[in-house]
Design a protein that fits this description.
mainly alpha, single chain, 84% helix
């Protein structure tokens, strides 16, 4: 392996631990592995490109190729790769546009739901306040009637607990807000 013996490899690893620490060493090894893989892929691609654009073909009857044919083939390959890349870009753009429209639609839906709930809550609070005001008005009318006629005092006493029952619902509506 690169002319490195076991002892030299051990020393390299030991210095790596001392310099970078055991936490960073796996990340460094992963990065080096990815770099080597990319280098090999680039090397293979370069070999393929050079062999495809070579003017000399060792396996054919006419070993010398026409340079114009090689250039034309390279141009056609570039056009094909450009079309493939453009299709990939169009697909990615379409997916991104769909996601953006989904997010904006979901935002609009959330806003509409929030507005609807807020309107319902305000309507419920208004109904509770109206009920409490009506109960208070009824209780005040009953007390006024009781003062005017002592015989209706029993009716006023029975109306007062009804007003007391309505008042807590108004307090609950205020707490909900």
């Amino acid at each position: 392996m690169f002319g490195i013996g076991g002892f030299e490899l051990f020393l390299i690893l030991l210095f790596g631990f001392l310099i970078f620490g055991p936490d960073k060493l796996p990340d460094i090894a992963k990065t080096v592995g990815h770099a080597i893989a990319k280098f090999r892929n680039a090397q293979d691609e370069m070999k393929g490109t050079l062999s495809a654009q070579s003017f000399i073909d060792k396996d054919s009857d006419a070993p010398l190729k026409n340079p114009l044919d090689v250039i034309e083939r390279a141009a056609n390959d570039a056009k094909d790769k450009t079309r493939t890349a453009q299709a990939a870009v169009d697909e990615a753009t379409g997916k991104a546009a769909e996601k953006i429209s989904e997010k904006s639609a979901s935002f609009a839906e959330r806003k509409a739901r929030y507005d609807r709930e807020r309107a319902e809550r305000k309507a419920a609070e208004k109904e509770a306040a109206d009920a409490a005001a009506k109960a208070e008005a009824d209780a005040a009318a009953a007390k006024a009637a009781a003062k005017a006629e002592p015989k209706t005092e029993v009716a006023a006493k029975s109306a007062a607990p009804a007003a007391d029952d309505a008042a807590p619902s108004a307090d609950v509506a205020k707490e909900v807000r």
